[in-house]
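Weekly modeling sync, notes
Attendees: AB, CL, MP (scribe)

Item 1: holo prediction request
CL wants a bound-state model with adenosine-5'-triphosphate before deciding which constructs to order. AB pointed out that an apo prediction alone won't tell us much about the pocket. Agreed to run with the ligand included and paste results into these notes for async review.

Input as submitted:
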Amino acid sequence: MSELWLKIKDFLKERLPEPVFKVWIEPLSGHCQDGKLVVSVPNEFTREWLIENYLSLFKEALSLWGQGLSLAFVVEEARPPLQQDLPYEPTRVLGRKFSTRYTFEEFVVGDCNRLAYKVFLKMAENPRGHIIYLTAESGLGKSHLSQAVGNALVSRKNTFRVCYLTARDFTSQLVRALKSGQMENFKERVWRNCDVLMLEEVHHIPARDFTQGELALALDYLYEEEKAVVFTSTRKPHELSHLDSSLRSRLSAGMIVRINPPDYETRKNIIRRKSRNQGQEFPEEVVEYLARHLRGDIRQIESAVVGLIARASILRESVNLALARELVSEIMPPEGHDLASVVIELVCRNFKVSREDLVSRSRKKRISQSRQVAMFLLRKFTKESLSSIGQRFNRDHATVVYALQSVEKRLSSSPSFRYQIEYLEREITERFGVTEKECRFPKRLEKS
Ligand SMILES: Nc1ncnc2c1ncn2[C@@H]1O[C@H](COP(=O)(O)OP(=O)(O)OP(=O)(O)O)[C@@H](O)[C@H]1O
């Protein structure tokens, strides 16, 4: 390789983001020939990409060290196709690299994620034939569990090959393969050569026919061959309305597993584990306080743990409740608002009504009874006055009083209704760590 080419590469390396350099520039070679710097590229698509995006940078480099030379990008003849697509190419993992932090041992198990954990653990023993669709809100462990399977498979003595991609990776590689006429190689690599395909964030599959069609074909092949497939998404298959129904049905061909937001006990265990990982054992009152107040995703818990340790170390204090309070007040939205909107959301979900229904003038039985329950729970769990609760639903204070009385009456006459309300109360208590004792109205109803 010519000295000039090495200089130019160094120049580009300094100016381009590392991943861009690694994918697009590092694999290239260059040499001088007949008054030209000839840069060999693997295919036409790369050539066009480089010209479109980095030509001026190449020219700038050439003006420094290669005055008088012109520039030519030449497509190599016999280069193994698509090798440059992937930043990592170890023998048994294609696509993205697994984080070594994401193991089964590091995954804290609780009621919210036990089923998913067991399903993935079983898959790691022998992936053959498993089709799993894992759904959860963001930051609740989808990638952690998927990569735990990947890590377990590659660390054992077996021959399983795993292809780990996001839906966006899949799409962009597919488009590249199509543009460069290398579809066969793409299929070889992603379908035929892998035993486990993990496709993350399938809600990002674009609403483009050909991508969906190719994915459907890939899945048919993989299912037929009893290979394992894992999909992850923040949405359930039936919610992916931009996808063709045939692809949706293929996505839901296997087991659909959900991870729920962590309950109070699991949050405590996660805080203990994450702080231990940072070499600290938090006092129990700090663990409980954080678990009660950090109700977002697990990323938020991780960042709070690290933030608390950093804060304590800067102030030369040990981790304590006062510091935890300070941190929580900075990162969490005001309590009342958050609690109220969750109460309303739970009521909507449970009684299958919308927020709009609740604030509407509708007197339909199902809607007005749901509205009454929302008022009852808000009164019980928040510090809001009767009139402020009324305002939430465009009603006055007297309507709220009536709602509270009606709910009380039904509670004593209908066991199934009581069961529903108790279920909602448990959900709120778990999510917020609010106990009966801490509620504004410990007894069923207090009038004001
Ligand atoms: N049960 C758990 N035990 C320990 N750590 C967890 C658990 N669940 C998630 N985490 C941690 O929380 C962080 C976020 O998890 P992860 O990236 O798997 O979420 P995700 O559901 O894939 O989110 P997104 O949809 O945003 O990609 C990671 O650092 C992960 O290790």
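Recorded for review: The chain has four domains: 3-79, 93-258, 264-331, 335-438.
Action items: CL to compare against the apo run; MP to circulate these notes.
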